[in-house]
Design a protein that fits this description.
It is built from six helices and five strands. With 179 residues, the chain is of the alpha+beta class. Strands 1, 2, 3, 4 and 5 form a five-stranded mixed β-sheet that branches. Strand 2 and strand 3 form a beta hairpin.
Length: 179
């Protein structure tokens, strides 16, 4: 649903048993973009049987050459760098003659729980934060509802809150409902 109007472009590079797949979508005027949408947290090339960075870079360079026959411009987002995906793609495409423009579009904040329970985590929070949460909780400004199914009432609440948020309109609400 969220991508039904898009024409796919699947590029593949291989070397022996190692493969690289890059799922893309054709765009207007000879460009292509990552096969991703509003709901993707990340997108990345798909490697099979390529374990080392050297193998991956070689496959990416081969794919960069192939990509130039299918598109004048590629937009590969949201491409993370926590696993060096963005850095490898940049290096390989630059080495293959592409001009690469890269910018940070978001940040992932990861909390290592290190086996702690929530209570242990909360105990370590600053007293100012704990006091603020306690004080605001007494006003009734925040309520928590735990459900085992996401029914019509939940959707109405979600859509009401979303409409009042800072976010742009939902990319494909029907897609969300179906998943």
């Amino acid at each position: 649903l969220a991508l039904r109007a898009r024409q796919p472009l699947l590029l593949r590079a291989s070397d022996g048993d190692a493969d690289l797949w890059m799922p893309l979508m054709r765009q207007s005027s000879g460009s292509a973009s990552a096969l991703a949408n509003w709901y993707n947290f990340t997108w990345a090339p798909i490697f099979a049987n390529a374990d080392s960075e050297v193998e991956k870079l070689a496959l990416l360079r081969g794919l960069a050459g192939l990509a130039s026959k299918h598109a004048r411009r590629l937009t590969l987002a949201p491409l993370p760098d926590e696993d060096s995906s963005a850095s490898m793609v940049q290096a390989a495409f630059e080495a293959s003659g592409w001009s690469v423009f890269r910018e940070v579009c978001d940040q992932n904040h990861i909390l290592e729980v290190k086996g702690r329970s929530f209570d242990a985590y909360w105990e370590g929070r600053p007293s100012r934060l704990k006091n603020t949460v306690k004080r605001k909780g007494k006003t009734g400004a925040v309520t928590i509802r735990i459900e085992s199914e996401y029914g019509a009432e939940s959707w109405r609440d979600y859509e009401r809150v979303y409409a009042r948020s800072w976010k742009p309109s939902e990319g494909s609400p029907e897609f969300l409902r179906q998943i």
